[in-house]
Write a structure and sequence with these properties.
ATP-binding; cytoplasm; seven-stranded parallel sheet; Rossmann fold; alpha/beta; 5 domains; binds adenosine-5'-diphosphate; translocation; single chain; Pre-protein croslinking domain of SecA; 12% strand; 918 residues; translocase
Length: 918
């Protein structure tokens, strides 16, 4: 109460903000007479002048009044639309990185041109984000007239275009595209191996249309790029055959005398680290066998750059056979290898070892080798859009979610007043005791509208519900059209006609989003067949258009007189916002209109949240059967129930985000590393710091920190350096001859020797020649381990709630373990890269170049990639071209009943598959 009084005295923050914006509007309006005098060319000249001023350091805020005035003048001339003052308000709020709430039909598309143009003056790119491709193309073409009139370039970023076309779209001053496509491009840009393959150029400013759909409804499911690994079955089987031919070396060899080996062999085992190492003899023997199997050419060695992946497979096969034991490390269950948790003994179903080990174990056990499907990259919309230097959005319905926008994205919501006050009457909910009574009442209402000639839009929140209403209307003999969100372009056409007299349209929430329902129908659509008819002569055309316009006017007035568009719904959505979206389709630009929700005590929302309360009100009022209750108090209890659900959903999204934040921070680190590597002109420092870390770790296993000579295992260290790294270092003699040598001295000696070995290799081949190879090895190693890390995180997240039992905070635990896993990832990269670069044998720069190219090629084509994004209900939907459900049925497919299996072979009922309403 107190706050209401204060608000009425001082005005709300929103009012105050609009007041300051209005002052700027006065300045913009004052420029109009001046700009009207300029020629088209002079107007265009202004764009260049502004760009120059921005380049010279003038702020966008300072230029805003002139830029907005310019855009308005340009729009008047190129599109015959003059931005309303309220659109200027909306434009300013967008420019200031806020959400502009503007009702349907207020002209958000035109509004956005103001901040888009202004921010494009920096030349850093502006991204306009739409919910589907149809709207991206439509808006880009539509508003493109204005932009090109003003000398700005516009690009459309569609999923179907080539890399070059995408690059051009992003190079343009202004880019239109969907949230999915921007997000996928970002992920793909962080998977490429060449700078030239990137398509985006920085994330500067984005304006999200229908921002609530994108940042709230679709926020539950991340964008995922996943890949089915190439089929390496043959390789795993072949390597499994090589294993029995290689023998285990027994005993500890003294590195100098070679004594101590009780039985020489091809490889040694390290049970502690679960690693195997090939001995020199092992290398030779393996080479011989692989040559016989036709896997390497004659004379080739395992150290050749082109055989890196082969060695990898061989090691995996050796580890699978000698270090991983059935019923200890894993069990075989229903033809699958299931890992056993080494500490708890629990079966870890669904988890797979990485690095090809799992497949090697499958080959060993003779079960089917599964091509694993890996997540290659993923990001949530929240985290993608938070990457922009500036973000803003527009929608008809933001206010109810203002808190979430502020909390999660730091986005403030500005409620922009309508250009002309809506004349829509939102009637109180009618609540019935049973579902049947509810539907009866709704159908009666629809029939009355139809008989009067008033258009009706029946809004539903699910396809199931539209099916029910569809059937009821068929039974009632009322002609109608049914729409759900699948074919955006065609839908937009139909929605555009939904305002015609007597039209009944059933639409799910999402259908025809972004398309206006004009009373009397869309005039352009009406005249289009005539205006585009080449065979007609101009005079005939003009006369015909005049006639159609008159016809339209008459219908428009008639529908207006009948009360405009009526919105009818038979359920309340969980969120008030979605209900408001539906209502907002009526009463645009000062039009008349009305809305009514028909509900029953059986509706889920009522049952769970508001039922008892409403029921007791009904009982108190002694309501007879068949009659509805219609009272403010009921509508308010429903709204408070919705508020509860909204709060719960917000919590879920916030939780999800908190988990995702951990991965997000790590993703940023990895992507930054990748980018630095790709852009670097030398990788010397990075590589040598990796190498140093690697050898410190190695040495510390034999010579612990701050230890004394008695604790050292110098022989072990010498052996591993020689066998594994081909570094011959005679440490024992030196130590014997000196009394003051410390563990640090040994570290230094090893480091020096490693550096010398590496430098000699680089010098032989030339540093520049080595660079590209180093780059590919680094990138590939980061990518491989990052993918594995993603799946570990996923697994960790799924299991973390079990920690609750142990009185641990799952979120804290998750963070801690994720951090540890990330440390392991960095260690693996360090060791892998050092290993490959130190042991690879190269004869010539050419050979190295070819190896690098082959590795890059392999890395890029290693997976059959598929994309998954939230569908329009916010759930993940796989966009898989091979999915039978996503292909049209072939011509001539026999018809089946709605409850029979779909002929596409999906295994679903026809009505839930290809028989879905469309
Ligand atoms: P929204 O996205 O806000 O629902 P749209 O951007 O689709 O609305 O615009 C609705 C309609 O209003 C369009 O047909 C557009 O041409 C028209 N319109 C918008 N602004 C103006 C204006 N300033 N003058 C004339 N017509 C306008």
């Amino acid at each position: 109460m107190a706050s209401n009084i204060l608000t009425s005295i001082f005005g709300s923050r929103n009012d105050r903000l609009l007041k300051t914006y209005r002052k700027t509007i006065e300045r913009i309006n004052a420029l109009e007479p001046q700009y009207e005098l300029l020629t088209d060319d002079e107007l265009r000249g202004k764009t260049a002048e502004f760009k120059g001023r921005v380049g010279a350091g003038e702020t966008l805020d300072a230029i805003l009044p002139e830029a907005f005035a310019l855009v308005r003048e340009g729009s008047k001339r190129s599109m015959k639309m003059r931005h309303f003052d309220v659109q200027m308000l909306g434009g300013m709020s967008l420019h200031h990185g806020k959400i502009s709430e503007m009702g349907t039909g207020e002209g958000k598309t035109l509004t956005s041109t103001l901040p888009v143009f202004l921010n494009a003056l920096t030349g850093k790119g502006v991204h306009v984000v739409t919910v589907n491709d149809y709207l991206a193309s439509r808006d880009a073409r539509w508003m493109g007239r204005l932009y090109s009139f003003l000398g700005m370039t516009v690009g459309i970023n569609l999923p179907s275009v080539s890399r070059e076309e995408k690059q051009a779209a992003y190079q343009a001053d202004i880019t239109y595209g969907t949230n999915n496509e921007y997000g996928f491009d970002y992920l793909r840009d962080n998977m490429v191996y060449e700078v030239a393959d990137r398509v985006q150029r920085g994330l500067n400013f984005a304006i999200i249309d229908e921002v609530d759909s994108i940042l709230i409804d679709e926020a539950r499911t991340p964008l995922i790029i996943s890949g089915q690994a190439e089929d390496n079955t043959e390789m795993y089987l072949a390597m499994n055959k090589v294993v029995p031919t290689l023998t285990l070396q027994e005993g500890e060899a003294d590195p100098r005398t070679g004594e101590g080996v009780t039985k020489p062999g091809d490889f040694t085992l390290d049970e502690k680290t679960q690693q195997v190492f090939l001995t020199e003899q092992g290398h030779e023997n393996a080479e011989g066998i692989l040559y016989k199997l036709g896997l390497i050419p004659e004379g080739a060695t395992l150290y050749d750059p082109s055989n890196i992946s082969l060695v990898h497979h061989l090691y995996a096969a050796l580890r699978a056979n000698h270090l991983y034991h059935r019923d200890q490390h894993y069990v075989v269950q229903d033809g699958e290898i299931v890992i056993v948790d080494e500490f708890t003994g629990r079966l870890m179903s669904g988890r797979r070892w990485s690095d090809g080990l799992h497949q090697a174990v499958e080959a060993k056990e003779g079960v089917a080798i599964q091509a694993e499907n890996q997540t290659l990259a993923s990001i949530t919309f929240q985290n993608y859009f938070r990457l922009y230097a500036k973000l803003s959005g527009m929608t008809g319905t933001a206010d109810t979610e203002a808190y979430e926008f502020a909390e999660i994205y730091g986005l403030e919501t500005t409620v922009i007043p309508p250009n002309r006050k809506s004349q829509r009457g939102d009637q109180l909910d009618r609540v019935y005791k049973t579902t049947k009574e509810k539907y009866d009442a709704a159908i009666t209402d629809i029939r009355e509208c139809y008989e009067r000639g008033q258009p009706v839009l029946v809004g539903t929140t699910s396809i199931e519900n539209s099916e029910i209403i569809d059937e009821l209307l068929i039974k009632a003999n009322l002609p109608h059209q049914v729409l759900n969100a699948k074919q955006h372009a065609r839908e937009a056409d139909i929605i555009a006609q939904a305002g015609r007299s007597g039209m009944i349209t059933i639409a799910t929430n999402m259908a025809g989003r972004g398309t206006d329902i004009v009373l009397g129908g869309n005039l352009e659509k009406l005249t289009e067949p005539v205006t585009s008819d080449e065979s007609l002569d101009e005079a005939v055309k003009a006369a015909e258009v005049v006639k159609l316009k008159e016809q339209w006017s008459a219908e428009h007035e008639k529908v207006k007189a009948l009360g405009g568009l009526r919105i009818i719904a038979t359920e309340r959505h969980e969120s008030r916002r979605i209900d408001n979206q539906l209502r907002g389709r009526s009463g645009r630009q000062g039009d008349p209109g009305s809305s009514r929700f028909y509900l029953s005590l059986d509706d889920p929302l009522m049952r769970i949240f508001a039922g008892d309360r409403v029921k007791s009100i009904m009982d108190r009022l002694k309501m007879p059967e068949g009659e509805a209750i219609e009272a403010g108090i009921v509508t308010r209890s429903i709204e408070s129930a919705q508020r509860k659900v909204e709060a719960r959903n917000f919590d879920t999204r916030k939780q999800l985000l908190e988990y995702d934040d951990v991965a997000n921070d790590q993703r940023k680190v990895i992507y930054q590393q990748r980018n630095d590597i790709m852009d670097a002109s030398s990788l010397r420092e990075q590589i040598s710091s990796l190498r140093e870390g690697c050898f410190i770790d190695l040495t510390r296993q034999y010579v612990p920190f701050e230890s004394v000579e008695e604790q050292w295992d110098i022989a072990g260290l010498e052996r591993v350096l020689r066998d594994e790294w081909q570094i011959v270092l005679e440490l024992a003699d030196e130590i014997e001859g000196s009394s003051v040598i410390t563990d640090e001295d040994i570290l230094e000696k090893v480091d020096k020797a490693a550096n010398a070995a590496f430098d000699a290799k680089v010098a032989a081949i030339g540093e520049e020649n080595f660079l590209q190879f180093e780059r590919i090895v680094l990138l590939q190693s980061i990518d491989t381990h990052w993918r594995e890390h993603l799946s570990s995180l996923d697994y960790l997240r799924k299991g973390i709630h079990l920690r609750g039992y142990a009185q641990k905070q799952p979120k804290q635990e998750y963070k801690r373990e994720a951090f540890e896993l990330f440390g392991q990832l960095l260690d693996s990269v360090k060791n892998d890269v050092t290993k490959i670069l130190m042991t690879v044998k190269v004869q010539s720069a050419d050979e190295l170049g070819q190896a690098a190219a082959a590795m890059e090629n392999r890395a890029e084509n290693m997976f059959n990639v598929s994309y998954s994004a939230p569908n329009e209900d916010g759930d993940a939907q796989i966009q898989d071209e091979d999915d039978p459900r996503q292909k049209p049925l072939p011509v001539g497919t026999p018809t089946v009943g709605r409850n029979e299996a779909c002929p596409c072979g999906s295994g679903k009922k026809f009505k839930q598959c290809h028989g879905k309403l469309n």
